[in-house]
Amino acid sequence: MHALRSLLFFLPSLAAAWSAPNYSGYTLLWQDPFNGAGGSQPDTGTWNYITGLHVNNELQEYTTSSRNLQLSGGSTVQLVPWHDSSNPTQGWTSARIESKYTFTPDAGRITMAEAQIRFGDNPTNRKKGMWPAFWMLGDSIRHGTGWPACGEVDILEMVNGALTGYGTVHCGTSPGGPCNENNGIGGNTGVADQGWHTWRVMIDRRSNNWQSESITWFLDNNQYFQVTGSRVNNQAAWNALAHSPLFFILNVAVGGNWPGNPDSNTLDGYGSMMEVAYVATYRSN
Ligand SMILES: *[C@@H]1O[C@H](CO)[C@@H](O)[C@H](O)[C@H]1NC(C)=O
């Protein structure tokens, strides 16, 4: 086990370190490029490590162990699910981190939130139950507002290893409400492979009219879904999504309502990880 882990620490460092790109017409507001030594962990000044948290009938126990959450040494972070017999009740361990950083989309501007992400190369048909995600919640949930009134913007979710990326908003009240809970309002796109891709939402407030403002989802600069204020058709719900502080979440859930549980074919470990090269926000000039 130790030899294998050392090898895996070493391999990513062969690649050049990289961080969030610069985009013409935009100012980089914030990024975490996940720099640091292989086997060390994300900065606890930047990220809250989440433990426990049993929602959506998910099986995983989130831990703070570097087995589940580590910097690769090649300027990336790896969230690694393990099927762990030391945890007999749930059987799986994994990781979830939430940014202390929040940002508020500016009136009159475009704000972009994005990450570059890849997935471990276990075969897609050996990932039943895997539910990796890069998403945001309204910071008001940290100050007493419930879900989904706090607002949720899912930049990327994938389930069961399928090469489909999902983008979704949740808002208002549940069930039903302006965001059609508990499904939310969402779209999806095919993904060519499990390798590196850039996943982004663009929150466009240039119109200064909440009904014509929009949230747009991109895979590698290609738009695949858009929601406008008028589609949500509820100003308070739209304000929670597009006018209010948001924070980032990276996690790999295992099992639960959407993917269903892993089966005997499901593989754990680095081959089922989510690896993130950077998380960043930008504002139009
Ligand atoms: C982006 O621009 C800044 C300022 O010019 C520069 O320091 C940084 O290296 C650039 N980043 C990349 C990824 O090229």
UniProtKB/TrEMBL annotation:
GO function terms (MF aspect): hydrolase activity, hydrolyzing O-glycosyl compounds
Domain GH16 intervals: 16-285
CDD domains: GH16_Strep_laminarinase_like (cd02182)
Matching PROSITE patterns: GH16_2
Cross-referenced Pfam families: GH16_XgeA
Domain of life: Eukaryota
Membrane-crossing segments per the record: none
Name used for this protein in its record: GH16 domain-containing protein
Organism listed in the record: Thyridium curvatum
